[in-house]
Amino acid sequence: MAQVNTCLKRIFTIFNIFFAIVGGVIIGLALLSQVVTNVESNMEGRATGLLLLYIIGAITMIIAILGAYGAHKENKGCMIAFLVCMVIGSLVLLRGGIVLAAGRPKVEPLLEEKFRQMLPLDQAPEDDQEVANLLQKTFHCCGLFSYDDWRDDIPESCLCDEDQSEGQCQTINYKNLMRQGAGPKKVYAQACFPIMMYYLNLMFSILIGITFSLATLALLGMALSSVIIHQMRYPNRATVVLSVPAIFTPGLPKYQELQNSPPKYQEIQNPPPKYQEMNPPLY
Fold first, then answer.
1. The whole model's pTM is what?
2. Run of H or E including 261
């Protein structure tokens, strides 16, 4: 079995645990969004967004499990598959995040232009009126831009309940003997379009944050998995240890060498007598 650095293996395992938790949080957000926005409607955009969150969360958890298993068992095939998923995922997420961030400012003008074409609501097609009534019941608002969008034919979905506070309602006078009768009525003070754009911008912010966060994690996972695969490929390579060369070993100061060396003048002043060398003593 290949030898992988234990510390690196632990860091990679912790990374994959965190990666799996992120996938679980994304699935939890999708469930929460489905429960909160569980209304009887055929909003295709809502269903597509929820399905996309489920898919992203599930794929994130599967890749995290694959990476954790590959690092624990030191399986080169699983690690290579994890690396390929990280490379593809980081490219796709970065591209998607850039597209979302660039297209976000264009959403509000397009929706406003589309909703302006539905006015006046009392003469709009029945499908458009159902969409407006659904928004009014969900967000407790009246009209797309104002209650005047309905002119004098204000529907029941605009009317305030008795327990609503005064700041949420306003009193208006309109005449419609066929539906509501004449006289003052309380309707919701806020229009639906600003409320809808608030939640839509919030959804865009969450999606952009999730996308770039996952892209950052993918880049980090790509770096860690590359190092682990490198160690699996070269298991017997010795670890490089930096050491100080011998030429930099500090020695004695020069003045100590001069002081500790025997003075040369002593050799000159006390030379051995030459006659002793020529005539050694007889005794």
1. 0.62
2. none
